[in-house]
Amino acid sequence: MSFNSVDNDKGSIVILGAGPAGLAAALELDKADRKFVIIEKNEVVGGLSRTLQYGEFKTDIGPHRFFSQNSYLYNLIESLLGEKWVKVNRLTRFYIKGKFFLYPIELKDALKQVGFFQSVKIIYDFIIEKIKKIINKKEPLSFEEKVISDFGRTLAEMNMLNYTEKIWGLPCSQISVDWSKQRIKGLSLFEVLKKIFIGNKKEGPKSLVEQFYYPDSGNSLIYESIGQKIVISGKNVLNFNSYPLKILNDGKNITEVLLRKEGEGEQFYKVESIISTMPIVDFVKLLEPRAPDNILAAAENLKFRSHISLFIILNKPSAFPDQWLYFPDKEVPFGRIMEPKNFSKKMSPLNKTSLLIEFFCWENDKIWNADKTELFSLSLPVLEKLGFCKKSEVIDYYIHKEKYAYPVYDLAYKVNLQKIKDYLNQFKNLQCIGRAGSFRYNNQDHALEMGILAARSIMENKRYNIEEVGAEQAYFERGNLKDNKFKS
């Protein structure tokens, strides 16, 4: 497509980013014959949900699977993928102090693994915390307080606190209680015990997605299918290797975007409406006239955690049965491993497999600046110890870095984010959506829903409350399979 192939005299709907949220908005607009321009920094669609390819081997950037409480999304993706959407039986475990534990937790398995005395200590700590809660009637202020209150200190320190600190690089006492609301909402030792001894007649957190759906050749297939529909329609422009340099405004609306496309120079796009999925902290910094100092300071104080993938190709048919494994222990340098072949056999050739090892870091810290050989050397002893592979079985390895992977929910994030949102609300034709755009750690189904509602807000000339998407106080991993959804 030509860089200048759109008539922009009257202004366009501009979409910043071709990840799940941006593409969902684009597809909805395309169906309604609305013209738009997509500006995407990468050379492919999908954002953090895209699939990487190394020769015959494919991997997503971390484990992606589809489940949702929204039937419209199931119908949408099924219409895009058809038979290329497969059902997968989920197996996920934690590796803690030399033992594997099922996730979600199953009491019989957990008690067997930790032994009698540790089991007594877990239950004793839990009872003590429940007594404290009744006496003090104090609401938890941090993630640490919340998890200890719900699970007791012993169980919390075995798993949730260690792993959370590994992801965020912060003590759990400095992480907002908001992080617990949708990641462990409704889960507690009490619920686990009740399920064992009383049973569980209602649909609840037990529906921790024992099965999920997955595109048979990688998660990118969803977004490539949307991108192809947009290109085939021929009405709109999808600019790759492009990024905004300036975002002009008149105090009431965003008026123009100055775009640079690699190899083709700069161009202004007049803006009718704009949907931004780029990191909200960067969006604010590109505004002209310049945003006030207190808004720029708030943007500086919002942090993103970065992510590095170490992708290892192995000359063996399988490494382990799980789709992915968690590693909370501080002694293990990485946080998670996935085997793409366990999502779909098409991710690796016959008799070979691959592993994706995930490191959580800060931009420009020691891990971020390490090269692939250093990260491989850090990882190999653990892989060999666990029997996942031998050095002689390693064919090759690669690394991939993402600067803006996870919005950090520290204790001050909500105040800083609200300042920015209040300021941006003056621009009536602007919607900030998606994980980075809304600074919300959500799943891809929420990002898709945000995009659809953003498009409909433009088409119907009314504002849907996109803030409500993924904000319900319900466990994020509760979902419904499309063929038995919404029974409750």
TrEMBL record:
SUPFAM superfamilies: Nucleotide-binding domain (SSF51971). Residues 21-389 form the Amine oxidase domain. Transmembrane segments: none annotated. One of its GO terms (cellular component) is cytosol. GO terms for molecular function: flavin adenine dinucleotide binding; oxidoreductase activity; UDP-galactopyranose mutase activity. It comes from the Bacteria. Pfam families: Amino_oxidase (PF01593). NCBIfam families: PRK07208.1-4. This is Amine oxidase domain-containing protein. It comes from Candidatus Magasanikbacteria bacterium GW2011_GWA2_42_32. The lineage of its organism: Bacteria, Candidatus Magasanikiibacteriota.
